[in-house]
Amino acid sequence: MKHTKGPWYPSFQATICIGVQNSPDGFTQMICNSILPDTDEAYEQEREEIEANMKLIAAAPDLLGALEECVIALQKIANSDSNVPIFLEKSRQAIKKATL
Q1: How far apart are CA 71 and CA 68, in angstroms?
Q2: Staple 33 to which of 19, 22, 44, 59, CB 3.0 to 4.6 Å?
Q3: Claim to verify: residue 70 and residue 54 sit in the same structural domain
C-alpha cells in the first residue's frame, strides 16, 4: 500500500477541526483530521497537543524520506562502526511500520 504523496501541510480549519492535507492552498485531499473538544475549557487544554500532532503527521512523508536516505548512507559505513547494524535495524523497522 502506498501513502498519499507528500509534502503534507497542517490545516487549521475554523475551530471545529484540525487536519492535514496534501496542498498548501487547501483545495486537495484531506489526509486526516481531528475534531476539537466542545467546551472552551477542554478546547484550550487540548488544542495545543492536537495542533502538535497534526504538525507531526504532516511531517511524516518528509521524515520517512529522510530515514530512507539515512539507511542508504548507513549501509555504506556498516562495516566501520559496530553500532550501525543496530541503527539500520531500527530504521528498517520504522520504515516497515510506515509502509506496510
Answers
A1: 5
A2: 19
A3: no
Q: Is there a single domain that holds both residue 82 and residue 50?
A: no
Q: 9 - beta bridge partners?
A: 21
Do 70 and 46 lie in one domain? The reply is no
In Å, how far from its chain's centre is CA 67? 12
* pTM over the 0.70 mark: no
Structural domain harbouring 68 = 62-99
Question: In this predicted model, what pLDDT tens digit does every residue of 33-78 receive, in sequence order?
Answer: 777 666 667 667 777 777 777 788 888 888 888 999 988 888 888 7
DSSP string, the chain: --PPPS--EEEEETTTEEEEESSTTS-S-EEEEEEPPSSHHHHHHHHHHHHHHHHHHHTHHHHHHHHHHHHHHHHHHGGG-TTHHHHHHHHHHHHHHHH-
Residue in the block written with cell 562502526: 81
CB of 54 within 8 A of CB of 10?
Answer: yes
Structural domains counted in the chain: 2
